[in-house]
Amino acid sequence: MTSAPCAAHDDAPWMLPTTPGPGRGRHLVPRAWVRRSSPSLELSGTWSFRLHPVAAPEGVDDAGRSIEPTFDTEDATLGAWSTIELPAHWVLTGQGKRGLPWYTNVQFPFPLDPPFVPDENPTADHVRTFVLPDGWGLGEEGGLDVLRLDGVESFASVWVNGTWVGTTQGSRLPSELDVTGLLRAGSNEIAIRVSQWSPGSYAEDQDQWWLPGIFREVTLHHRPAGRIDDVYARPDYDPATGTGRLEVEVSGPAAAFPAEVVLPELGVSTTLTGPGLAVLEAGAVEPWSAEIPRLYELDVRATGETVRLRTGFRRIEVVDGQVRVNGQRLILAGVNRHEVGASRGRVFNEEWSRADLALMKAHNVNAIRTSHYAPHPRLLDLADEIGLWVMDECDLETHGFEAVGWQGNPADEPAWREALLDRARRMVERDKNHPSIIFWSLGNESGTGRNLAAMSQWIHERDHQRLVHYEADFAGQYTDVHSRMYPTLEEVAAVVERDPASPAGTGPVALSGIPASRLSPGQAAHVRTLPYVMCEYLHAMGTGPGGAEGYTKQVEPNPRHLGGFVWEWRDHALIDPRPEASGALRYGGDFGEDVHDGNFVCDGLVTADSVPSAGTRAWAASVAPVVATALADDPGAVELRNRFHSRTTQGLALAYQVLAEDSGQAVVTGQVKAPELAAGESTVLRVEGLGEAIERLRREEPQAVVHVQAAVLDPVVAGIPATSPRQVDPVTGAVLLPQIGQSTEDGLRVMNLRETSLAPLVPATTRLSVSEPGARRVSGAVELGQARLDSLGRLVELGGVEIVGPEVCAWRAPTDNDDGHGPVEYWDVAPTPQNMGGGSATGGAWGTPSSADRWREARLHLLRERSCGIEIDDDAVTVRSRAGAPSRQWRLDVTTRFTAERGGLRMRTTIEPSGPLPSVLPRLGIRLGLPAGLEKATWSGTGPAPSYADMDLAARHGVFQGQIEDLWEMQVRPQEGGTHPGLRSLWLTGQDEAGPLRLMVLTHGAPAFSLSAWHLDNLTAANHVEELNKDEHLWLHLDGLHHGIGTRSCGPDTRPQFAATARTVVLDAWIGVQRG
After folding, report:
1. Which end of the chain is more exposed for a tag (fewer CB within 10 A), N or C?
2. Shared domain check, 188 and 272
3. pLDDT at site 165
């Protein structure tokens, strides 16, 4: 791609450049983030602020030369001045009057004309006056004054006391400018002009909000003549001897030396007489890992200052394609983490970030990929301290060039070489001392090319310890791991498992039509020798993700499989800054963007409010580092497996719950100390009291399924508070174990809980129904015991309470995965090893019809029902109807038999589908409109959270209780999110205009159920939570079929075994009403 000639803006160095490249001016070489004893001044706080529509509002003089800006805050010629609190994105301040956020995923929000950007380019001036603190060292001979900008999006030009000092590009990377000689005693002024768009924007197309501003700190540092310029600590740990070695590369002027390099805790030191390498033989040390994040202070004591950092001893190596740390295999249970908060965007808050990482640890996350840029440096300090493996990713993504066949892609254009190398250097030099970082990642979705290879070469030369990652290097030409995004299970198996049909490993490694499928046989054989990582998988958009267990089961048996990083950790929804929005959460398009990608920015395991979902817990269960499983063939025995990398099971507890399904018996509980197992060990133990409890319940309830729930409780990693709904004892009402990631009443985190179900000892006897005679017509209606039906046989009242239905239903409010247009779908062709799990995918093309598209085409959401007759005999009413959709020939034949039983009403509904229905349905069942005043639910079935066929690993059987509003997991875009399979009984309490009310539902066949305060039409149509309106009824759905979730919003479709394939269903339920 070549750009048409345009007028250059390079006549003045302070101007927005029209060429790619590193920043201009008085830049210092990148260095590590460390703590220093020398003076510094953080300039966060109130700055003067002025916004312009263009990058150079001053224009040109009579000779056509650009006019250099002045920043007189008393002069309003170019616009009025106001104030802003930095760090900040200006579009999230000013109540929407300073512009608004803009979201795109792949597409650029400006013409693809690199490196030029539009003239319409929001640009803001930021001005701050300050006084240097006492003892600054102003004017010190040999001293250095440094201005550091940790993050500015996307271009900054900087003046100090009226003198221009430099420009920056690379929004999420630091820049340091030499301002020596420009500071003075008394008042000083700094001015920073920031433009939203720059040539660098072409390298920052990272599926996130475009948020301009100075969003990280601006800091002044005085570095004395006897300073340390940089420190590079390279620790090593020998797992065979348990000893550590530390190489410390120290640079600085001659005046800094001699300098002492010290590990105070270990009493080890050496002295350097000049710049060079210090080697410390540390002796016996405790190694660093994500599970035992042991850190040691390192001091470098120069003549003019002391530099401090924390280091951890660990060794990274690849042995036979397997990544090992400290001699042990590494498995990543990771997430992709954008740096984003709902109120302040990418502005860093340490307390909030610490809580964010703690929430990850509570849900068994052990690794983060810093997608798709280096995070705030303190975040990496926290990862070192809390314990997380880190893939540190460079601030680089050029995804929008894919739409033009990667023409002009910066990853391969020579003109961009130095700009991209500069980004790699700034990331590595800043972050090189963090023991948590195991991988450097070159960036994301930028095609491939010579500049990426050059970045990798430079990183390998600078850092011989860590591995280099980049997903689109499919052939492994310049990186160290084979990486994939959103592979099918069959694609994973093709790479990590041995194929007897291809012993040389030269067969295809990917689904036909995607770039990884184009490898030569030799390249395919090579990548099968490399470690394998899923850098993105299980797209967690909306309700979901489904199918986690399929992926996580493939990791342990395959030695080269590293695991992966779920996309992604957190929804990016932002709080609307406009007062009239009343704090509502927003996604793409909500701010009036003319080009955007909707709610694709809301794809996290936790919401923007930090609430984990049922999908989060299902994934957490699948990756849990310690698993306890009750053995079905040996009641009372539990297999305990320690899947930690390095931590033992010391201090863990095993808890059990034993219950007989639908029996009314109390739950038997117990807790014992876990035996100590080293990492990687497993054992089978007999748990005191467990066998006896199982035997007793099976003896007393021989017709019942007995469920044995074994949980691992952790006192080390904190859990989050338990939330409604909760599992309760049906006899005492006492709360039982909370959900995975939550804390028990004793403060122990539920690391994992697995359920083993034991079949009944004898077949269950059929419950006899005793019908009450008396069905009769009254004034055109039908009375049947406590029930009243209208003339067409539709229920309108039970026990004096209005109840509507049953209405047949084959529609659910589409999830984001239902609406997904990913190329891998399984409606017509099942996944097989032969088709690499592609199903009917062709050529990897996006835009194929989604499941919801097909359901809409069939008009399942427009279902209409007509009566086909009503039959009344002495003790029953049989109602027949047929449902269909406008201009469609498929039909649902519905037969409901009503009988009055036990003071209530039994409904047995049979739904028979026929005709050209979609092969997969969203659901098939009935719904009932109940009184809206019902508020609390207690049910026997599965819970506590919603679950689906491919998202049920964290679900368990039991009795559960909670507020009805808590039974639905609401997404920022409303959708299906409240289904609980396996219902046995349901008790609802509340009140209506007549007083307290209790409604009971008993089922045969254990259907799925959900309770929704909103009508399905409203739930389907709403784009935001605030568009939901509580209906006049509470809607109870009972489903004989309910479709799985999948990950087709960006990954593969719901697997066929979890699909709701159209077939006849029977719903059998008894309903009763009580007053008082």
Report:
1. C
2. no
3. 98
For residue 771, pLDDT over 70 is answered with no
Report if residue 369 sits inside a domain: yes
Choose the final residue of a domain: 733, 758, 783.
Answer: 758
User: What range defines the domain where residue 194 resides?
Assistant: 24-223
The CATH number of residue 666's host domain is 2.60.40.10
**Rama region for 922: left / alpha / beta (φ>0; ψ in -120 to 50; rest):** alpha
With H, G, I as helix, E, B as strand and everything else as coil, classify residue 655: strand
Burial (CB count within 10 angstroms: exposed 0-12, middle 13-18, buried 19+), residue 874: exposed
CB 147 within 8 A of CB 158: yes
Dist. CA 246–CA 251, nearest whole Å: 16
Q: Inform me whether the pLDDT recorded for 608 exceeds 60.
A: yes
Q: Which of 385, 231, 378 is nearest to 306 (CA)?
A: 231
- Both 931 and 1065 in one domain: the answer is yes
Round the average pLDDT of the chain to a whole number and report it.
95
User: Cα angle at 524 between 519 and 528, to 5 degrees?
Assistant: 145
Catalytic residues: 445, 536
Indicate whether 588 and 700 sit together in one domain. Answer: no
In the block, tokens 């704090």 appear at 583
Neighbouring residues of 128: CB distance < 8 A, sequence distance ≥ 6: 43, 45, 46, 47, 48, 86, 189, 190, 218
Token pair for 82: 């106001």
Report the distance separating Cα 897 and Cα 908, nearest Å: 5
Strands (E), 944-1004: 956-963, 985-992, 995-1004
Q: Could you give the CA distance from residue 744 to residue 990 in angstroms, rounded to a whole number? A: 28
Domain count, the chain: 5
Tokens 């310029």 -> residue: 229
Query: Torsion over CA of 387, 391, 396 and 401, rounded to 10 degrees?
Result: -130
Q: What's the first-to-final CA gap in the chain, in angstroms? A: 76
Q: Taking the C-alpha atoms of 974, 977, 983 and 985 in order, what is their torsion angle to the nearest 10 degrees?
A: -50
pLDDT at 56 over 70: yes
- Does residue 497 belong to any structural domain of this protein? no
Task: Please give the average per-residue pLDDT across 541-550, as a whole number.
Answer: 97
CATH number at residue 469: 3.20.20.80
* Exposure string over 456-468, b if 16+ CB within 10 A, otherwise e: beebbeebeebbb
569 near 620, Cβ under 8 Å? no
Helices marked H in 216-278: none
Find out whether the peptide bond into 224 is cis, omega within 30 degrees of 0: no
- Give the three-state DSSP class for 489: helix
Same domain? 592 vs 630:
no
Determine how many CB atoms are found less than 10 A away from the CB of residue 80: 8
Tokens of 1005: 């066949």
Q: Which CATH number fits the domain that encloses residue 924?
A: 2.70.98.10
Burial per residue of 503-526, b for 16 or more beta-carbon CB atoms within 10 angstroms, e otherwise: eebbebbbbeebebbebeeebbbb
| Residue 354 domain flag | yes
Same domain, 593 and 722: no
Same domain, 443 and 481: yes
Domain shared by 258 and 164, yes or no = no
Query: 176, 203, 223: which is the final residue of a domain?
Result: 223
- 448 in helix, strand or coil? coil
CA 833 to CA 863: how far, in whole Å?
38
Supply 503's token pair. 């012993």
Q: Is residue 359 part of a domain?
A: yes
Provide φ and ψ at 1012, rounded to 5°: -130, 130
Q: What is the pLDDT of residues 678-728, one digit of tens each?
A: 999 999 999 999 999 999 999 999 999 999 999 999 999 999 999 999 999
Q: How far apart are CA 22 and CA 423, in angstroms?
A: 8
- Same domain, residue pair 743 and 614: no
User: Which residue's structure tokens are 């719904």?
Assistant: 927
**Nearest Cα to Cα of residue 380 among 440, 442, 307:** 440
Strand 40-42 relative to strand 367-369: parallel, antiparallel, unpaired?
unpaired
Q: Which residues pair with 319 in a beta bridge?
A: 322
